[in-house]
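A quick aside before the break. I want you to see a complete sequence-to-structure record at least once, exactly as it would be stored in a machine-readable document. Don't worry about memorizing anything.
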Amino acid sequence: MVDIIAMYLLEEHSVLCSDVDFGLTELENYVRACVYDSLSVYTSSLREMMTAASALLQKYVAPIQRQELQKADKIKLYHRIQPQLVTTMTQLSCVPTFKTSLELPYNLRVLLVCAFLASHNPARLDKRFFCKGRSSRRKVKSRKGSKLSDVLKGPKTFPLDRLLAIHSSITQDGTIPCSDILMSVSSLVSLSS
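That is the input. The structure line, written in tokens, reads:
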């Protein structure tokens, strides 16, 4: 998308770009740093990105034309267009698009819950939490300081077998083939990257 917007700007503002010696590479850097990274959270529309990039380019290049700044002073140039960028963000949308468009399938949501349970609970408690029968439990003296330190340590790694065991215990439905679950795990891993 960045290269499409940069090519559009090169065609639309050819005189402006030639005045300040902006080629396709400089325009791609401008679009990536100033437009796409800032606005992609608020819109995924190519038309809105092109309009915003076109309006902001004139403000971005103005200090270079007046010879106040060099085109290598990217941070100062970015700070000059920041007020217009904020105005553009508010005009595009009040709610970022990623909050409304992220809907995971049921299988992935269950796997995320299972992964959370496996990473935040010790393996020795799996039998207590996930077994169906009632077992005789002996009382364990609680250590007051251990709960806080466990929370501060954060999530822990766990084996895939444990994730699958928790999944089968929670769903109580043996109809989902293991290959579907493993495909769901691989798609969750690819989402985190």
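Two observations worth writing down. The chain is about 70% helix and 0% strand. Residues 94-100 have pLDDT under 50 and may be disordered. We'll return to this after the break.
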